[in-house]
Design a protein that fits this description.
Layout (H helix, E strand, L loop, with lengths): L8 H14 L8 H22 L2 H8 L3 H7 L3 H16 L13 H16 L2 H14 L3 H10 L1 H17 L8 H12 L3 H6 L9 H19 L2 H16 L2
Amino acid sequence: MAETPPNVENESCDDLLESLRRGRPAAGQDPVKRSQIIDGARRVFIDKGFEAASMNDITREAGVSKGTIYVYFANKEELFEALIEEERGTIFKNMYDVLDKSDNLRETLVKFGKVLALKITSAKVIQAQRTVIGASDRIPDMGARFYERGPKRGHDKVAAFLNAAIERDLLRIDDVDLAAYQFTELCLAGLFRQCIFAYRTKAPTQDEIDRIVRSGVSMFLKAYGTERLVAEEGHQTIAVEAKP
């Protein structure tokens, strides 16, 4: 049964007046308090999962009043989405910057693929995705928003990178949208499913990720690479071998 938020109107007004008197952030605007609530929620969601967690649990763990928590977040779903957004911003920050440096197509794809595989199989990301999957059956809109704000945005950036390579005549692809999905799947071959279903209890090693990603990039470029790409890579190989 859904939890009913308390009447926080009077408490909010009192908090606002008190904040103004003391020069503190107004109710619902204090970043330290908001972070305190999110940190408490993170511990509760990890311990109990989304379904079993309650706002009362989060209130106790965060060390705030129930009135205060509802000033910041209307319900558990909103709080969970805020937590996911914060985690995503921390974990995936600057991840796509490597795609801006595309002098060597193969090495750029390898570098990006390794970062992608490392982050997607990290304990934090796996836990978050399990929680979202578990909640999506009851709250499908939340699952859809999670995908649109995270994986879909990343997918679009990969597609844009592939389109740029096509314009340079390094790739020939009829369906770029499909190819972008194929590329990420190749970089995660076997890893994601093993992690998400807890078949694998430890994150993959750097060496393992490197082997899988390089193999995936080779397959991808064999399928979509142009003669110009082959010629460029041949010249790069000769240049490297010619160095004293």
